[in-house]
Design goal:
Shape: flat
Order of helices and strands: HHHHHHHHHHH
Largest sheet: none
Number of helices: 11
Distance between the termini: 57 Å
Number of strands: 0
Strand content: under 5%
């Protein structure tokens, strides 16, 4: 029995778990000059410029100067492209080398948090996709493994590792997402993100604040919490 569109989408798990080999190169009628890497690169550029709402397969094909059907030689659905783009931008993250496991975990954790925050701000379309797809591409997994290596060195018990990761990086996710919104909103009025944030906070509290100072302070609170829980054993 043929599945309807909704059921077919529900059955799709991840572009990284597809059984058949990737389509790549030329052969069997595929258009020349294209591959998944090129298509993904242009997808990211369009998402940065126009956001999720403005992105479509037709718009992508026009940017590539090919027909929409040409793109389908390399990906099956728009979801595939978004998942590939999600992983591609995770490749921008600067990660500590595995052999750097003797370095101070506090500084490595701070560095990873700042990297992730900056990624979310650079690509405001990213945050809605993080909870939509499995996010198990090679770049995303490299980031996840780097985070786990650092958190394991904090001295927390094994059962506390995932909770610590959630506390830090869900905070970063939320902060970076909101900051990205400030950036987009402020740009509409010719304001910097800090100007927009400061204006909002001063309106409510009468006190000047900055995004960077608040982020650093909140992150230090979380790191102090990890230290306290480690001391409690």
């Amino acid at each position: 029995m043929a599945k309807d569109g909704a059921a077919g989408r529900a059955a799709r798990v991840s572009v990284w778990l597809v059984d058949r080999p990737r389509r790549s190169g030329r052969g069997g009628g595929q258009p020349s000059g294209l591959d998944r890497e090129r298509i993904t690169e242009v997808t990211v550029r369009l998402l940065d410029a126009e956001g999720l709402a403005g992105f479509s397969m037709r718009r992508l094909a026009a940017e590539l100067n090919v027909t929409a059907m040409s793109v389908y030689w390399y990906v099956d659905t728009k979801d595939d492209l978004l998942e590939l783009a999600l992983d591609a931008v995770h490749g921008e993250l600067r990660l500590p080398a595995p052999e750097a496991d003797t370095a101070d975990w506090h500084e490595q954790l701070r560095a990873l948090a700042h990297e992730y925050r900056a990624l979310l701000v650079r690509h405001p379309w990213l945050s809605p996709l993080v909870g939509t797809y499995l996010n198990i591409g090679p770049n995303s997994l490299a980031f996840s493994r780097a985070v786990q290596r650092v958190i394991r060195r904090t001295g927390l018990p094994a059962h506390g590792i995932s909770g610590a990761i959630s506390a830090v990086f869900r905070f970063v996710y939320g902060y970076g997402t909101v900051e990205g919104h400030f950036l987009a909103r402020g740009a509409d009025f010719g304001m910097t993100p800090d100007d927009c944030f400061r204006h909002s906070v001063e309106t409510v509290t009468g006190a000047p604040e900055t995004l960077e100072r608040d982020f650093v302070f909140a992150l230090d609170l979380l790191i102090a919490g990890i230290e306290a829980m480690t001391a409690r054993g």
